[in-house]
C-alpha cells in the first residue's frame, strides 16, 4: 500500500484503500482472554494503552496485513509484560513448550479451565 | 457450497445466534499465539498478578456488554431533554446515571439532527466505546474503513446503505486513545407514544457509530 512519507503506516486516515469488508465474526474464547489479560494487567498498572499501541505500531504494516487483531494484541501485551518484569522470556518459553506438549488443540492445551 | 446457498448468510447453518460465523477455536491445531495466551495467563496467575476468577469475570463482562447499553442511553436522551443536555455536555458523567461505568476514558456524545450527521472512526488504531457498544465490528478496525471514511464519508456511508441528502452536513470524528465518541441518532418520526424500552430497540450499533440511522417504524 502506498503511503506518503509524513505518516507512519498506522496513521491511515485519508490514505487510498479498497472496499470495506463487512463480514463479522464472533470472538473466540482465546481472543476474549487476550483482551481480558490486557484489561486486567493494564488496570493493575503494568502498562498503559500507549504501551499497547507502541508495540502494535512498531510491529509494522506487514503484521497488520497478515495477522489477526488478537494475534497482534497477544504479542503486544506479552512484550509490555516482559518489559514490566511480570515474567521473564525464559519462563515464557519454557511454559509455551509445556503448553504445547499437552495436546493438539487449544481446548486440550488450555486444560480444564477455571 | 451445495445448492442450499443463500445470499443472506444469516440463513446459513453454522452461525452464532448473532448471525456470524464462529472463529475456529477449540478444534483446530493450536497456534503459536494461542499457546502464548495460555502460557501468559498461567504465569500471571501463578505469580499472583491476576486470578483465574478475574479473567472469567472480565470475559463475562465483555459478553454482557452490547449495543443495548448504548441504545438505553440514546433512548433516555430521546425522552428526557435534561438528560440529553447533560449527555452532550459531559457524556462521561451522564452515562454513570444509567449505571454504565465509563472507566477512565472521556465519552463525547454527538447528536444527529436534520442538518448534521455524525460518524465515528479511529484512524490510528481501533478506539471504540466498548463500554456502551461491546467489542467493535471487524470492519471498524480494518484499513478500508479507517482510511476512507475521513476522506469520502458520503461514499462510505452509501456503501453501508445510508444515502444522505446534500443538505445534511457530515461530521467525521476521529477517536483518540483517551476519549470515545457515541453518536446519538435522530429520533424517528411517529415514535411519540413509545416508551424507552421500545425506543431503544430502534437504535442499532451501526446507528451509534454513525454508519446508519435509527430504525423507522
Automatic annotation (TrEMBL), chain A:
Nitrile hydratase beta subunit-like N-terminal domain residues: 7-102
Pfam families: NHase_beta_N
Superkingdom of origin: Bacteria
Record protein name field: Nitrile hydratase beta subunit-like N-terminal domain-containing protein
